[in-house]
What we know:
Strand content: 5-15%
Mean pLDDT: 79
Organism: Adineta steineri
Number of domains: 2
Strand order of the largest sheet: 3-4-6
Largest sheet: 3 strands, antiparallel
Distance between the termini: 83 Å
Low-confidence stretches: 199-214
Number of strands: 9
Shape: elongated
Oligomer: single chain
Protein name: MULE transposase domain-containing protein
Radius of gyration: 28 Å
Amino acid sequence: xxxxxxxxxxxxxxxHYSHLPMPETIELSIFKEKVKKRVVxxxxxxxxxxxxxxxxxxxxxxxxxxxxxxxxxxxxxxRLRRQTTPTLPKSSIFDVPDxxxxxxxxxxxxxxxxLVRKKRIILFATDExxxxxxxxxxxxxxxxxxxxxxxxxxxxxIYKHVFNLLxxxxxxxxxxxxxxxxxxxxxxxxxxxxxxQTLNGFxxxxxxxxxxxx
Length: 214
């Protein structure tokens, strides 16, 4: 906009208009900023973070109509998270970042980090998850994840080491690891391990076909 020395309007150039932001636009900007901060800082599911913030925002109807759907926002939020996600290690020598070793409520998530024949084994579980596992009489290897293990292979020595670690964890919690049945896909090394493994005086007897309940 152009004026003369007496502030009289002369004309304008360009097609740009300046408006104060609408209230719903401000609401939406604040919401997006909160979501981005949580996506970068936390490791939880992006969809859950988005839904939680959307519920907490208490948007007006106008702002809610402008808010992108979770499925539409997920792609850009995934890209944002990848920018701060540690790169995959190229060797077994690395530190597990706090974001992956401590839960959101401050509990330890890495309960064992050991070497077997110079190969690293990391087991992830909270004490609460371990108690759930040790109280179970039936264990399904690929069902509800109580313990997540990063193993260097699927051999009898490795599986024996894992069972020994679980037995030690049970004793630490004043519990016993004595399931009556174990169900898994057919895996010979696992079957051979369970067939000979004795935990707290209880000997497992393994079946020899896929999906057998031990």
